[in-house]
Amino acid sequence: MLGLLAASVALATAHLPVEAERRLIRDGQAAVRQHGEAIWDGFSQAPLPVLLVEDDTETLFCSPPVEGFAPLGFDSITRCAMQGRPRTLPLDLLAASDLDGRSVIEVGTPEAIGIDDAEWKVSFLHEAFHQYQWSLPGYADAVAAVTDAMGETGAQWMLDYPFPYDDPRVAERLAGMNAAGERFLTAASDDEAARAFVAYVQARKAFKGVLDPKQALYFEFQIGQEGIARWSEIQLVWLAAASDPAVAHIASERQNGLAVSLRSIDRTGIAMWKRSALYVYGAIEGEMLDRFRPGWRREYLRAPFSVGAMLDKATATVRRD
Prior knowledge:
By secondary structure, the protein is α+β, with helices and mostly antiparallel strands. Helix content is about 60%, strand content about 10%. It has 14 helices and 6 strands. It has helices at about 1-15, 20-35, 110-115, 115-135, 140-150, 155-160, 170-185, 190-210, 215-240, 245-270, 270-275, 275-290, 295-300, 305-320, and strands at about 50-55, 55-60, 70-75, 80-85, 95-100, 100-110. The chain has a 6-stranded mixed β-sheet with strand order 3-4-2-1-6-5. β5 (about 95-100) and β6 form a beta hairpin. α9 crosses α12 and α12 (about 275-290) runs parallel beside α14 (about 305-320).
């Protein structure tokens, strides 16, 4: 144990993260602190610890002491305490994961991930929302309930569950969602958007009609976890874009890319996109709820995997109007 600690101290103190990487962390945290509350209650108060993965070392920012890490002192850029250990994680990591019972953003450098600084900031904001999700009262219990209902253990099922992406019936029913979703995104009037929204929800019900209960649950889980994270990322990037032209360009790309993605899913099939397609549908459904069901975000905090039920309730209001 003493040998491991000595090695940790020696390796960690031999190399501190360069200033550019610490500035990226600072800027990502600042965007959440400044704009998070405009999107989600309490988002600006999320703790935002970050584990930066480099060639030989991992540096943990803004966290209480964690066993196995050596203290590295105070960082004047992020204004956080730092801790270090020898590298144990992949260099191209980009995730919100559990560390010592806390949700931590684990991330490699832009070079290791293969993206530029602006894309790195946007990706950081996506993972920051995941960290916020896990901080919500009841969120971990909701995930556990879905895991139990799926008959799964651990978390790997979230990534590799055998959803019927290549089932022709799935592709057929998704075509209706794709067409209605694109009409909603490109609508020139409120009436046109409302009609497209109702058509989308009807097509969504038809799509779920070809799924078995576990497949339907998996779909709603991914919509609530990853799709709403993509929607939140886009909203936060728009707010942060005023001070960063490169980020503003990405915000525009991501927003306009939703309709492009629907056309691509329709053309190439969801079997090519797999789970990534569910990010697209969830982001669009966040847009729909924001337009037609004010207050949906408060509902989400209580029941994060019930986006479909919220859409159903919103159609009743739209039809009355």
